[in-house]
Design goal:
By secondary structure, this protein is mainly alpha-helical. It contains five helices and no strands.
Length: 86
């Protein structure tokens, strides 16, 4: 089945959003970047805490701060985009 124009536009838009978000994540400080990358891989806060050997509360705090930095850069829409990809 051949996709129609709107499906192609949606796919391109999603890819562009993902690329912009990934570039912004790459500019975050080390642990914040690593945590968001792991979240995008589907890992839970507990999984990440065990992997990085830090507390779950530290993971939640670093994730919150990282998302705030992205929100300040892109606006509230980044939270919506982040939820799509996580």
């Amino acid at each position: 089945m051949i996709p129609d124009e709107s499906e192609i536009v949606d796919a391109v838009t999603r890819a562009e959003c993902y690329n912009l978000m990934y570039e912004a994540i790459c500019q975050l400080p080390g642990q914040s970047r690593q945590i968001l990358e792991l979240v995008l891989e589907g890992k839970t806060a507990k999984d990440i805490a065990e992997l990085l050997e830090i507390s779950v509360n530290s993971i939640k705090t670093l994730k919150y701060r990282a998302l705030n930095k992205l929100k300040n850069r892109f606006g509230i829409s980044v939270l919506i985009i982040f939820n799509i990809f996580s």
